Every structure is written in C-alpha cells, then in structure tokens.
Amino acid sequence: MNREAPGGNISRENVERRRRDALYHRRLPRRLSSLQHGDIPRAERDDEKNYKKLCARHAFFRVEHQSWWKEEMPNLEELQEGKDNLNQHNWKVDFIVTHCTASSTQATISFGRFDTDLLTDYFEEIRQNCEYEKWFFGHYHENRNVTANDILIYDKIIRII
After folding, report:
1. How far apart are CA 45 and CA 7, in angstroms?
2. Residue 6 is assigned to a structural domain of this protein
3. Is this prediction's pTM over 0.85?
C-alpha cells in the first residue's frame, strides 16, 4: 500500500502516523500489548536536536524530506512517555513491533558490522528489562527467526493473534 502524497513525498500526516505506529503501548484483550513509537524510555541526552541527529539512522546518505525525515525519530517526551507506560505495565508485554531492534540483536544479525545508536541502545534496555513473547522488526530486509522470541520480518505477513 503506497502512502505517498502527490509528488512522491510522504505527507507530514503519514510521517506522524508512521512515527506513532512504530512503537505503541496500550492495553488489549488478554494482556495483549504492543509497544509503539513514543512509548519508550527517555534517552540520556537532554539536547533533543543532538539526539535526533545522533539517531538519524543512515541519514548521512539520504535526502531530508525525500528519503528521510527527522520526525521519524522519537522525541524526548515520547521516550519519557514510553518509560512511564512500561512502568505502568510492569515491563511485561506480549508483542513488541519496531523498525530496528536492540543493539545485541542487531550485532547478531550483522555479525557486528552495523553501528549502534541511541535508539538501538534504548531497545537494548527494553530487551534486558522487558518481559515479552515476541519482538518483530524489519529494518534489516530479511525474513528469519533470530531467536525464538526475536523475529526479523521484511516482506512476509505473519498472523500473531
């Protein structure tokens, strides 16, 4: 499904929706929860501008507002909201769905070739502290089970409920 606005650029509304859909944490039936963008712990940086620069994965070879948007990265308020939400649910969720993954999982996939950043390090904190059944992610353009709980999805559709 193509969500691009006329002219080939993704609309600001769709960028915002994609940001919000990346990580979401809400209560669903039977303790089914998912983690959404904005519902993740706060980074250790107070300077939001520098934070977004550091988190801009692969932005060095992308063109802003054509193939990369700084709004794709969570802001510090969203990070704090995420930590608050995880605390409210005692760091227990059924599923986590993200674009990239935790630093250690990324190292397994890439044999250490990919650098970590604040977001993958944040996801590492989640991986270490959160009790989850499955973590689905897709940034690495491959389909495989990295572990029994960490599932890399690129172009497959998997029924989870």
Report:
1. 36
2. no
3. no
